[in-house]
Design a protein that fits this description.
The strands form two sheets. The chain has a six-stranded mixed sheet with strand order 6-7-8-3-9-10, sandwiched between helices. By secondary structure, the protein is of the alpha/beta class. The chain has 24 helices and ten strands. Helices cover 61% and strands 9% of the residues. The chain folds into two domains: 322 residues, ABC transporter transmembrane region fold (Up-down Bundle), CATH 1.20.1560.10; 183 residues, 3-Layer(aba) Sandwich (Rossmann fold), CATH 3.40.50.300.
Length: 618
Amino acid sequence: MIRDHYLWKIRPYYRQVRGLLALGFVSGIIMNTAVVLPPILLGHAIDTALALEKGASSYRALILAAVAYVGGCSLNLCAQIGKRWWLRTANHRTVANMRSNALRGILAWPMERFHRQAVGDIMARIVGDTQVFMTGFNEATTELLDTWLFSISLFTAMLIYDANLALIAMAPVPLAFILAYLTGNWVRGRTLVMRRASSTLTAALQEYLTGVRLLRLFGRSPKSVERVDVLSEELRQANLSETRLRLGLQPIYAILVTSGIVAVVWLGGQKVVEGVLTTGTLVAFMQLYIRFVGRGHRIPLFFNRIQAAGVAYQRLEGMLAPPPCIDGEPRYASFRPGRITGIDLPFPTPSTAAAGPLAVRITDMTFHYPGSDHPALDGINLEIPAGSLTAITGPIGSGKTALLQVMAGLYAPQSGEVSLDGRRLSEWTSVDRSLRVAYLPQEPGLFSGTVRENIGFADLEESLEEEIIALSGLERDIAEFPGGLDTLIGEGGIRVSGGQRQRIALARALAVGRGRSPGLLLLDDPFASVDVDTEGQIVDALRQAYVSQTAPEHRATLIICSHRLAAFPHADRVLLLDKGRIVEDGTHEALIAADELYAHIYQAQHRIERPARAGEEG
């Protein structure tokens, strides 16, 4: 039962901050042990002052009692400051570690999972649910000391003073615990509804902000605002429901915990009159009880917050990667407030496989996208020699993109086998595949930052930078950018043109080998936003660099998918796909001579491009 609880499952995260937790717990023990000193020393000082008035004490004793009281308060306060600093730092570091770990887990997801979960929902879980979880984690550390040990220390001191009076005063407290347990399902249910509503709203906002230009072009802005209003109202109602329950329970807990004050005043006053207790002793007991009341009502709230945090962790658990091992970290790393475990993990070591072009072999392969019963690829059999240039075309929906995505390892086929250089693709590690297979998708996704950061030039020598820039046709663009390679391109590359985005993405694909040529270069309609002449120049440059190279370690297998066929005469082999099948296969010249679909498409495009070029020259 204990092993199923989320507080047991997050033990690796405790270990990552064990140094900070140790310092915080030591300070907390000192604080909560010393918490009884101020009331006791205050009571002693009052009794000393009353004795001095009767001539039974001295001013020296009174001064010592006052100094002791101030010292006890100072010790308690210093320990409290240290405890809060170290434990809250540990809490925030744990959440940072968990968010980092969630991102690592998401990056390792199969592509099929992204078809089932919205990006906005993922964002809400990483940001919002980790915040809710942090509250529970804070309760399990800070409140364990501030409330539990604090209350136990006070209750023990009250028992020492007067056990009967302490037990009578504490009699209503178990009722608050029972109520907290009984309301657990309500707390978990309303927290889950609130977090789901937050995820739905975040997903909608992310979708609308991403497509804001389309919303304006097609006049859908009012509809999107209306839907956001509805979702915001649902989130407001869920928040109100959770808040009403939480705030409604707080006064009930407080009333139950503080109701014992009647017994303390009534019975304690009688004992002073009877001479069983002194006035100082009753004042000290009252101070202890008042301090207990100030924190005691938080004990049932502790259970409710732990319950809410459990809901948040359940929503996070499925996306978390195994926590990084801390054995190789620097000594005393767990004592460092600013360290996030896993951020400094070294890049996984790739295998020592020889560089050079990769041969591709596909046998009886069938593939369909998640959620679709219609095969995008059906019975594909294909062998592509290492170091060759293959061009693929076909109508929209013929399976060109699906074929490259399967070759890149983004999706696994439902049947059949894909091999690179004689090794099944499933046997390649993600690290080896990322260093040996470069894939440029149709949509060149760029990140906010500089051109250099998007291409990934951090680990490359300057000579390699210049070579990649030349191959991708970016030389003139880089020269015209105000900051050169350090020019900021905005989110998604919004500050550069479509053609520049494609060429920057092409440069990034060429740089994946970290200093050596990629073994397999997959380009999916990479030149849709560049003119025909630039396309031809880039393809010819890529052929010269990766196909016609004499040194095998510098060569690569190049596969290009495109609707435009102007560059196809440069290819060693041309494939035409239709309805997920290869319907034409051969050299450009052989397919032209066959005078079938490929020849008709090429000739039609050639007739269109020839007058356009003549017009530009004229």
